[in-house]
Amino acid sequence: MQRSYSYDFVESYRDNWWNQDWGAGDYGNYATPSKKISVSFLTPVQRSEGEQETSTLMKQGGAKIHLGELVLDYAKNHSADPDVPESLYLVLRMMHYGSWTSGGDDSTNEILASQEETISKGVSRLLRQCYVASPWTKKSAPFAE
């Protein structure tokens, strides 16, 4: 089923960003090479490019961890960048509204949950310590740990 809203809208049902196991089950099976839906409007070259891009994306892991780590690292190394507070806020919002991370087994799920918690706490701490006066810090309060 397609999204009800545009892609710049954050879906409260957590259908946002990609997940660690995106395409592994019934939800999202359009991403699995063995269970493709018809995309006849795409040329074979476009379908092949899409499959390669999906494969590359999935090797990065889930969005919450991959993007969260990138933003947190950037924020630590570029603290004067005026866009950092908003980026940190967006990570917290992503953590809140992103899909649940699942690696398949309990020990993997615990590791992924721990990574997400570490990122979320790091982002919250950085916002509160370095960007106290930023409106993004105040706006992030509902998502902060």
Gross geometry: globular
**If helices are DSSP runs of H or I spanning 4 or more residues, what is the number of helices?**
5
Query: Quaternary state, please?
Result: single chain
Name the beta content range: under 5%
User: Biggest β-sheet: count, sense, barrel?
Assistant: none
> For the residues shown, what is the average pLDDT?
79
Share of helix among residues? 40-55%
Low-confidence stretches: 25-34
Number of strands: 0
Q: What's the SSE pattern?
A: HHHHH
What gap, in angstroms, lies between the N and C termini? 33 Å
Class by SSE composition: mainly alpha
Radius of gyration: 17 Å
| Number of spatially distinct domains | 2
Describe the 3D structure.
There is one protein chain. The protein is an all-alpha fold and 145 residues long. It folds into 2 domains: 29-59; 63-139. The chain has 5 helices and no strands. The chain has helices at 44-59, 63-77, 84-97, 106-130, 135-139. Helix 2 runs antiparallel to helix 3 (84-97), helix 2 (63-77) packs parallel to helix 4 and helix 3 packs antiparallel against helix 4. The longest helix is centred in the last third of the chain and has 25 residues, at 106-130. The protein is globular, with a radius of gyration of 17 Å. The two termini are 33 Å apart. Mean pLDDT is 79; it is low at 25-34.
